[in-house]
Amino acid sequence: MSLNAAHDLLRCPHCAADLDPDGSRWVCPTGHSFDVARQGYLNLSGAAEPANADTAAMLESRTRVQSAGTFDFLSDCLHQQVPGTGEATTLLDVGAGTGHYLAQLVEANPPARGVALDVSRAAARRAAKAHHRVASVVADVWQPLPVRTGSIDVVLCVFAPRNPAEFARVLAPRGRLIVVTPTADHLAEPRERYGLLGIETDKRERLLATMTEFLTHERTVSLRRMAPLPSEVVDDLIAMGPNAFHDAPQPGTALQVTLALDLHVFRPLLTEG
């Protein structure tokens, strides 16, 4: 089913008309047509893949970290924040990567369905297999999203770029946006030990200032864990993120690691409840 999960959620990236499935293609009324990749995803980006798109190797590392349960505490919190069965029926995961979190939420909330959106084709190939009610789409978050206005009950943005104007546009009137970001001390131990990329200390303040121009901030949940991680998970934590583009080390050392995240919930500006 996969792509059919988005049968009434996508719009043309060229003219913003509704996109509908037509055999092995998706088409809009003005004649634009997009072929479904043989791996089951739909490419609506219309541009070359950027150099900083997630690679297959990064996604392998991320899959191993997720399979190890390293971020299960985040999954638990996401389940608490997303409305229950029958309330949140359409979900959009922006910068979805493997589609891990979206697939979990869809599975827990039938008949919910979702769109996994990522600029990486390698990510789209993985997300296409994440769940039978998840459609995988290649698109750039910095551009207008190929998603119909007001069609999404929950937008997820987990460790991903943010386009608040577009998030606000695609949200349903009573929808919610969930943004997850690392705090300054996230992965502090490997960052200090191996000279990895840092995180801005004012990240939360800058995020809220940017987002609240388009959305109402409802709450922030701070999550923090100290986790004893084996060497292979430490290696994958480093290799699955932006450090992978900066000759990051493969230390091969077990560490006690700080996992520290902020989960922010926003709603449309005109929504009061």
Portion of residues within helices: 25-40%
CATH superfamily: Vaccinia Virus protein VP39
> Which word captures the global form?
globular
Distance between the termini: 34 Å
Number of helical stretches of at least 4 residues = 8
- Look at the structure and give the CATH class: Alpha Beta
DSSP summary, beta strand count: 11
Largest sheet report: 8 strands, mixed
- Overall pLDDT score: 92
Instruction: Classify the fold: give the CATH topology.
Output: Rossmann fold
Backbone structural class: alpha/beta
Side-by-side strand order of the widest sheet: 4-7-6-5-8-9-11-10
Q: Measured on Cα atoms, how large is the radius of gyration?
A: 18 Å
Task: List the domain count as a whole number.
Answer: 1
InterPro entries: Methyltransf_25 (IPR041698), RlmA_N (IPR048647), rRNA_m1G-MeTrfase_A_prd (IPR016718), SAM-dependent_MTases_sf (IPR029063)
Protein name: 23S rRNA (Guanine(748)-N(1))-methyltransferase
GO molecular function, one term: 23S rRNA (guanine(748)-N(1))-methyltransferase activity
Domain Methyltransferase: 92-175
